[in-house]
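Attaching the record inline, Q. Sequence:
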Amino acid sequence: MNDFLIESEGLKYTYRNGAAYVAVLDGVSFSLCRGEAVAIVGPSGSGKSTLLNVLNGLLAAQAGELRVLGRSALTLSQDDWAQLRRKHIATLFQDGNLIPTLTVERNIAFRAGLAGLAENDGAALMERLDIADTAERYPDQLSGGQRQRAALACAFAMQPKLILADEPTGSLDYATAQRVTPLFFDAIRERKVGALIVTHNPELAERCDRKLELREGALCPWDSALSS
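Structure, as predicted:
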């Protein structure tokens, strides 16, 4: 596999709204490399979450070309996508997406197990993310910030090649975000993970290698978008 984890050209996705059709993605073209973090910004409803769901195979683009982890999306079955999500693509949702019947420790172990890893560094991850004392708690016993940090631990425990994150610090208070964010980016670069991060947080975006804005269905450099 080359260093490109995502290569897209002219991706299109249209929703039907009554009798009208709304082009949410209208020619999205970009690439993402190993060890690179790219921020996607844009107003609510601009299609950022739709883009993430196309990139992890939960939605299928209606036009354009997409390669994920060196494989053409056109050749991937739903089983293939499920295998990629189990082993190589970690998606971080705003709600944490933890299994409610498992403790934090078991959630982390389960996620690593799905990726085929018999052992995981869950204890070390919980310590680094300051949630070691939540190991035996269930998701409904956690604060929003604790759930988000547990989700981060689950993501890194599976040792993914690609992380797709929807507001990964959105549930954290300012002090916790300031502490966790450097750990997030350190892990990305240490492990050569590629990360696509949807965020409204300018500080988080500034830490990324590139910043893109989803505007009128297409991606453009954020800085030029702000000056236009």
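The longest strand covers residues 4-17. The domain at 35-59+77-227 is CATH 3.40.50.300 (Rossmann fold).

More tomorrow.
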